[in-house]
């Protein structure tokens, strides 16, 4: 290849694998999110409560709200949480999320 073949494109800033931003947990509000999450699931047994909180928090911060929503719906279908708790959790994850 000669030197001029790269002339028309700026390869330093060119990315083929650009990802689209995903709605995830707003990390500036993660302490408040954790507190609110704890208040919603406080009626569950301690072993279930910890696993549920950890799962929701990690999915929200790493994957996104869509995956967290699927996780919550799955837990409701499994009978781990009630329908009212599912509604509160879904409202919470949408309230504390932003595109990043």
Structural class: mainly alpha
What overall form do the CA principal axes indicate?
Answer: globular
Strand arrangement in the largest pleated sheet: 1-2
Strand residues, percent? 5-15%
Secondary structure tally, helices: 4
Instruction: Give the SSE string.
Output: EHHHHE
What is the number of independent domains? 1
Please, could you describe this protein's structure?
With 100 residues, the protein is mainly α. The chain has one domain (19-99). It has helices spanning 30-40, 46-62, 65-78, 83-95; strands at 23-25, 97-99. Strands 1-2 form a two-stranded antiparallel sheet. The radius of gyration is 20 Å and the shape is globular. The chain starts with 22 loop residues before the first strand and ends with a strand.
């Amino acid at each position: 290849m000669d030197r001029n073949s790269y002339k028309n494109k700026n390869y330093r800033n060119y990315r083929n694998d650009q990802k689209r931003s995903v709605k995830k947990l707003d990390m500036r509000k993660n302490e408040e999110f954790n507190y609110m999450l704890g208040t919603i699931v406080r009626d569950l047994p301690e072993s279930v409560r910890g696993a549920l909180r950890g799962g929701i928090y990690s999915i929200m911060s790493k994957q996104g709200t869509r995956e967290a929503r699927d996780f919550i719906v799955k837990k409701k279908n499994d009978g781990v949480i009630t329908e009212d708790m599912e509604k509160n959790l879904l409202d919470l994850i949408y309230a504390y999320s932003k595109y990043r």
